[in-house]
Design brief:
Structural class: mainly alpha
Strand content: under 5%
Radius of gyration: 26 Å
Helix content: over 70%
Oligomer: single chain
Distance between the termini: 41 Å
Largest sheet: none
């Protein structure tokens, strides 16, 4: 018996040690390239011209960030990005939650037909040209709402929320109806609070997509006042690359300055998403339905 206990204790220690080693390796794989990008973006063109891995900047410089922020319209583009991400996430999550709540009820007439129609949209689409013609016919060209309305619905997110709503105990809904609550009251006061972990996950992925999206702007927007931050930074990178190609003799300093501008844009566009993750993290690790019902 003692040998068995000793063996189990030894196995447990070995398992913990291996897990710690793997965790350290995983952190190094993630943190070292991220650190290199940040430090390289803070390095001068001369330091970048030397090439190789940069662990610490030999020549600290903010020129790469000045090249990005020299554009006077960068602030307006940032406001557009924040507005479309914030409004797009809220409307998308709420709209998908309403549809998921309705489809989670098995007594809804035509539910199977609606589910089948939704599944079809997951595999087939009209294509770029029909979509463009639809957006044009709706009057959404050069409109802020082109960022919001077409992104309202995603059946993949509806399926996630629909399955989550099915796991909510029926006794909660029945007790609410006995107390006189209607469908809207049950949806807003019971299902929405209990589904926060699933909704936070969808909000995070949709927010990242909204923040990083610039193809919508390239396809449907020509008014520069509606350019989001991603599109503005894309233009800055293209302009810096064009200046580098036009340089006679191909100066190494200008070429590496282009690389520095690219690294600076990576840092600028990544920081807001990284800052938002700790706010949503608690919804991933909390079980809000634990203890909600006692039989």
């Amino acid at each position: 018996m003692n040998r068995k206990v000793i063996r189990e204790d030894l196995d447990s220690r070995i398992f913990d040690a291996v897990n710690k080693v793997l965790l350290v390796c995983f952190m190094v794989i993630i943190l070292v390239p991220l650190w290199n990008v940040i430090i390289s973006s803070l390095s001068s063109g001369r330091a970048l011209a030397e090439g190789g891995f940069i662990f610490w900047s030999k020549e600290f410089s903010l020129e790469n960030y000045r090249a990005v922020f020299n554009d006077s319209s960068i602030g307006q583009s940032f406001v557009v990005s924040v507005a479309k991400t914030f409004l797009g996430v809220i409307t998308h999550v709420f709209f998908c939650a309403m549809i998921g709540y309705g489809l989670s009820k098995r007594y809804i007439r035509g539910r199977k037909l609606y589910v089948a129609m939704g599944v079809i949209t997951m595999f087939f689409s009209g294509g770029m040209i029909p979509t463009y013609l639809l957006i044009k016919s709706l009057g959404l060209l050069n409109s802020f709402w082109v960022y919001i309305i077409p992104a309202l619905f995603s059946y993949y997110d509806v399926v996630i929320l629909m399955n989550f709503f099915r796991n909510v105990p029926d006794s909660l809904e029945e007790s609410a109806k006995i107390d006189g609550a209607g469908d809207w009251h049950i949806f807003l006061k019971i299902f929405i609070p209990l589904s926060m972990p699933a909704m936070a996950t969808i909000a995070l992925f949709n927010g990242v997509g909204q923040w990083n999206d610039f193809m919508t702007t390239k396809l449907y927007i020509t008014d520069q006042a509606l350019y989001p931050l991603q599109m503005k930074l894309y233009e800055i990178i293209v302009q810096s690359q064009t200046q580098s190609m036009q340089n006679i003799g191909g100066s190494v300093v200008i070429e590496t300055t282009t690389k520095g501008v690219q690294l600076a844009t990576i840092v600028i566009t990544t920081l807001p998403i990284v800052a938002m993750y700790p706010i949503l993290q608690r919804y991933f690790i909390s079980g809000m339905m634990l203890g909600a019902v006692k039989e």
